[in-house]
Amino acid sequence: MFIGFILILGTGVAFLLVFLVKSFIAPQKVAGIQKLLSAGKYVQAIRQAKAMIAKNPHDAETRYLLGKAYLADGKSELALMELKNVNATAIFSKTIPEVEFRKTIAQLYLKYNQPEEALKEFLLLIKLEPYQAENYYQAAVLFEQRDNSDQALQHYRKAVESDPKHATAHAALGFLLFKMKQMADAKQEIALALKMDPKNTKAHFFQGKLLKESHDYANALAAFEKSLRDPDYKQKALVERGCCYLEANSVEKAILEFDRAIKASSDESSNDTLFARYFLASCYEKNRQIEQAISQWEKIFARKKSFKDVGEKLSQYQELRSNDRMKEYLTANRDEFFAICKAIVGTGLELAVRDIKETKFGCAMIAVEGDAEKWRNVRKQPRLILFYRDPNLIEDAFIRSLQEEMKKQSIIRGIIITSSGFTRAALEFAESRPIELIGKDKLEQLLGASGIGD
Description:
Blueprint: H1 2-38, H2 42-55, H3 60-72, H4 76-89, H5 98-111, H6 115-128, H7 133-145, H8 149-162, H9 167-179, H10 183-196, H11 201-213, H12 217-227, H13 231-247, H14 251-263, H15 271-286, H16 290-303, H17 310-317, H18 324-331, H19 334-348, E1 351-359, E2 362-369, E3 383-388, H20 396-408, E4 413-418, H21 424-431, E5 435-438, H22 440-449
Parallel strand pairs: 3-4, 4-5
Antiparallel strand pairs: 1-2, 2-3
């Protein structure tokens, strides 16, 4: 019995010794990793941390240090994986300070497009640091992205209350107020931001957005130019500059800006890059450079199939691949397009062209029956013919506007020829009116009869 007691006591002492040794060694090893991190020896720190985790996968402190080592070594995606594990199990300590941890993981969530998770972290940081303006600001940005304007406004206001000199928060608050149609307050906040920090690139960016929405394109371009200095805003500012030129109908200049925005991209799947390609495709479409537009839409579709109406655009223009006649109709420049339309009217419709002019959707012409040289000597009814090569379906409102124009010119009959089609409402409206609708199929027949594409 005495021997048994001695054995039990010996076993207990042995376990205690092992525990004490481990309790001494583990902190020493953690301290060793911290020293390696401080010395910039990230690869060695990673190797040592991974070896410790292999022995104890639940060692949160070592996982945290491994995450920091990955981050310092430029492997931020691996860092996020480790910090997620820590977040699920950790009890915060001197080795894992909670505020530092949450700030780090929040930024990683932002980097890898996980806004919901990032917002949770910033809301926790607000509880931990209720007087830190940056936490309110970051939460406000994320609320605004979710279209929760009320919460965004509340948090932007808390940011500037906590730090009245937070110029970026003033700028963001100003632009949100502008979107909410509170113009006077919006301009005041933007002006305040720039007064506090004339070099604040984000303030210049939001000032540019405000000026662009007011159609003051010249000053908007200047504001966006100043925000190009910031790598975080360079691509966004280039896209906005392109949009200014596009809205001002300076298509060639818009193309240059969107092309610069694409070249400035560091992520082909980012929204900024996708929007740059989308707007660039719109420019090409306006210039009837349809193949270049298709190339941009295909690049967008490969990254994000649901992006805006790209799928519909590709479907609408798919015919270009196999239909030379329609391709010629859709891609011809102004003079070539006029020649095609005249050929259709002359050969296909057997009418003589009296007048033709360019429109934003194609061209408009007045034609009469018979020989064009003799129409003045014979009483013949003129017709107003609209050629339409926009990919969108024609709405009934478009036909109503044609009818009004016909009344102004005292023209009884009208014809609309389109490479797309008509909505049901448009077809129903035209049924009881002297307006003939010619869709894609009949247009193709007219192109063939006129010898286009042969």
